[in-house]
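Researcher: Let's continue the batch. This sequence belongs to Actin depolymerizing protein, and it's 152 residues. Same format as the previous ones, please.
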Amino acid sequence: MAPPGDILSDPDIAQAYEDVRSDKSETTWLVLKYASATSDSLKLAQTGTGDIAEMTETLGDDEAAYAYVRMKLGNDEYSERTKFCFVVWAGPQTKIMRKAKMSFQSGQVKQVIRTYAVEVQTSDKHDLKADVVEMKLRKAMGANYDRQGSAY
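Model: Same format as before. Here are the structure tokens for Actin depolymerizing protein:
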């Protein structure tokens, strides 16, 4: 297996991470994909300024990828908070060997993508719907003062 610096050698990855983290940047998400079917190296595949649904559209059923998403949560403009979600995606038709390597490689990716409230490991795009991820983020935040009652 490649050392962590090798799989994440694309200099655009660190810059995209900083852009997603920055309130001054319009970039709200990034997706990292493998350079080829046989490579362990990751490349910055795409960034965007939309929501998690826009990011999810870039994930293929036969692909493995990592994503990082900025989301705003709050009941009103005064309680709005920015939270981050780290996604480990292995599409339902991803090859077995790629999935096996991902458990080790996701740790290497976390050396670059370090700050997030929740991690979602999935092969089902339903798990990446905005309301599902928002509920995970709210649970991670602790207190939930929604009118609907407790999130638990």
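Researcher: Any comment?
Model: The domain at 4-141 is CATH 3.40.20.10 (Severin).
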